From TrEMBL:
Self-association and partners: Homopentamer. Interacts with KCTD6 and KCTD21; KCTD11 and KCTD6 or KCTD21 may associate in pentameric assemblies. Component of the BCR(KCTD11) E3 ubiquitin ligase complex, at least composed of CUL3 and KCTD11 and RBX1. Interacts (via BTB domain) with CUL3; initially a 4:4 stoichiometry has been reported, however, electron microscopy revealed pentameric states of the BTB domain.
Keywords: Cell cycle, Developmental protein, Growth regulation, Transferase, Ubl conjugation pathway
Keyword Transferase listed: yes
Xref: SMART domains: BTB
UniProt cross-references to InterPro entries, sorted A to Z: BTB/POZ_dom (IPR000210), KCTD11/21_C (IPR045763), SKP1/BTB/POZ_sf (IPR011333), T1-type_BTB (IPR003131)
Pathway terms, separated by semicolons: Protein modification; protein ubiquitination
Keyword Acetylation: no
The encoding gene: KCTD11
Domain BTB: 39-144
Name of this chain's protein: BTB/POZ domain-containing protein KCTD11
Record-linked Pfam families: BTB_2 (PF02214), KCTD11_21_C (PF19329)
Species: Leptonychotes weddellii (Weddell seal)
Length: 295
């Protein structure tokens, strides 16, 4: 089952303190030697490959990356088919570019008009790079107090049941045809505020370009695995779950209410107010469409 690990973020009602816990590293198929200082290290971050050195990764020893790659830390590499060791971290691959550049240069150097500082701050908080968090705070302070601008946020979600047939093994030579209903959810989020849109992507662990689109919107599709459906059949069908929450509090989004609750939290955090609910304003978390505005 593919999992997407979201960032540690804050909710509308409480803040989350992240402990420097090492992220999960894929176990190796065979034993291998840890990388050595001076040699290249390849990281697969959310599907994007980066090559760097141990000196760069451990520039800030108190950070999570510093702890992961500190000499003597027992972290197992996931060997690729070519035989070179690389490490997989289930985080936002695009944002890691700026994390790595900060480790190399020792300064924050973002492109002009960069609009995902909320996402980058969440990633810096996950990796526990305090100097980068300080640099982000200075950047935001230099821009002055953020003035909320007029913006629109629209979230649509649709559920469609699907009957899946599969062969279940009941004995050494006994197979039985079984069926189970799988609920597939499709959601579209449109937001004209880049900061809020970045926070939405981070909240739902959108870490690869195949799940995130350019422009003011992105789409999600997920299907919780029924208990009756074997794991191998779930993977064969190409289905995947949706996760949200911070490290240590990872939660699966199993339906419309859980999805819309997270959307509502992020919207309130960014100064939006609820403008309309469809089809039933009295049943907010089971609606199909929420519209938020900020004046």
């Amino acid at each position: 089952m593919t999992q997407f690990c979201p960032h540690p973020g804050s909710s509308a009602f409480s803040s989350l303190s992240v402990s420097p816990v090492l992220p999960k590293i894929s176990p190796p198929p065979v034993p291998s030697s840890p990388p050595s200082f001076g040699g290249p290290v390849t990281l697969n971050v959310g599907g994007t490959l980066y090559s760097t050195t141990l000196e760069t990764l451990t520039r800030f020893p108190d950070s999570m990356l510093g702890a992961m790659f500190r000499a003597g830390t027992p972290i197992a590499p996931n060997l690729n088919p070519q035989g070179g060791g690389h490490y997989f971290i289930d985080r936002d691959g695009k944002a890691f570019r700026h994390i790595l550049n900060f480790l190399r240069l020792g300064r924050l150097d973002l492109p002009r008009g960069y609009g995902e500082t909320a996402l980058l701050r969440a990633e810096a908080d996950f990796y526990q790079i305090q100097p980068l968090l300080d640099a982000l705070r200075e950047l935001e302070a230099s821009r002055g107090a953020p003035v909320p601008t007029a913006a629109l946020l629209h979230a649509d979600v649709d559920a469609s049941p699907r009957l899946v047939h599969f062969s279940a093994r009941r004995g050494p030579h006994h197979y039985e045809l079984s069926s189970v209903q799988v609920d597939t959810f499709r959601a579209n989020i449109f937001c004209t505020d880049p900061e809020c849109l970045g926070a939405m992507r981070a909240r739902f662990g959108v870490a690869s370009e195949d799940r995130a689109e350019g422009g003011p919107h992105f789409r999600l599709e997920w299907a919780p695995c029924p208990a009756e459906l074997p794991e191998v059949e779930y993977r064969r069908l190409g289905l995947q779950p949706l996760w949200t929450g911070g490290p240590g509090e990872l939660r699966e989004v199993v339906g419309t209410p859980g999805f819309l609750e997270e959307v509502l939290r992020v919207a309130l955090e960014h100064g939006f107010r609820l403008d309309s609910v469809f089809p039933d304003p009295e049943d907010l978390l089971n609606s199909r469409s929420l519209r938020f505005v900020r004046h």
